[in-house]
Amino acid sequence: MFIKRFIGILFILAFFTINSAQADSEDFFGIGIRFIQEPVNKKFMIVEVFPDTPAKHAGIKEGSEIISINNEKVKNTCLCDISNKIRGEENTTVTLVLRYGWRWKKIELKRELIKVTEPKPNQKFETYWKAVAPSDFQTPVVFAKEATDKFSRKYRKTILPLIKYWAERKTKFEQKFNICETYSNGMNEACLMGLLSSESVTTVADKKLYKLLQNEVK
């Protein structure tokens, strides 16, 4: 039960991340927000507002919940449908009803050209990282505090600490990986093998984290 639920949670994050990456490879017309579906209470939350975009100029805050789009409630709607409703043709408008804390806000925004550039992943590094990290955490997504404060208490207490932990692990692993890459060929491979060995030992110890999570998530 735990595995199915946990995979479902990370699938939502992975689904959103993959679609974002695909969208970022080409220009599109929208308002400049990134959002996810909070896995526990199923709310659609804005987790990032891009600079110099209609959303930013309108004062939309990270952590806002999307209630409706063009007078249609988003409850029981999938992420892809919401994304399609927010995007559209240039200079057309979209109307959102948002909730931030106890405040409700109805706002009409004009779609503009949105460009979000993502750095290309180092394929060699990603291959080594996959040998260390559990599949659920190979691409951990860390959200702004303003957004995560609005998530459910259960989600903040159980899932977010693990996502943050693996994000930090990945950053430290990449730093060590880059040092190994500065060595000559023979030393390079030896360094990487030693790095994988030490990191794998740490990953085995991390099973305790999963046990704690399993006890928390019911």
Short overview:
With 218 residues, the chain is of the alpha+beta class.
Would you kindly provide a written description of the structure presented here, covering whatever features stand out?
Strand 4 and strand 5 (72-73) form a beta hairpin. The termini are close together. With 218 residues, the protein is an alpha+beta fold. The longest helix has 29 residues, at 153-181. It has helices at 2-24, 54-57, 79-86, 123-130, 145-148, 153-181, 185-205, 207-216; strands at 28-30, 33-37, 44-49, 65-69, 72-73, 93-100, 103-110, 112-114. Helix 6 (153-181) packs antiparallel against helix 7 and helix 6 packs antiparallel against helix 8 (207-216). The strands form 3 sheets. It has a 4-stranded antiparallel sheet with strand order 5-4-6-7, with helices on one face. A two-stranded antiparallel ribbon has the order 1-8. The protein has a two-stranded antiparallel ribbon with strand order 2-3. It is built from 8 helices and 8 strands.
**Tally of helical runs:** 8
Contiguous low-pLDDT stretches (5 residues minimum) are 1-25
The N- to C-terminal Cα distance equals 9 Å
CATH class identity of the largest domain: Mainly Beta
Report the count of strand segments: 8
Secondary-structure element string:
HEEEHEEHEEEHHHHH
CATH superfamily of the largest domain: PDZ domain
Strand order of the largest sheet: 5-4-6-7
- Estimated helix fraction: 40-55%
Estimated radius of gyration: 20 Å
What does the average pLDDT come to? Answer: 81
Question: Which class do the helix and strand fractions yield?
Answer: alpha+beta
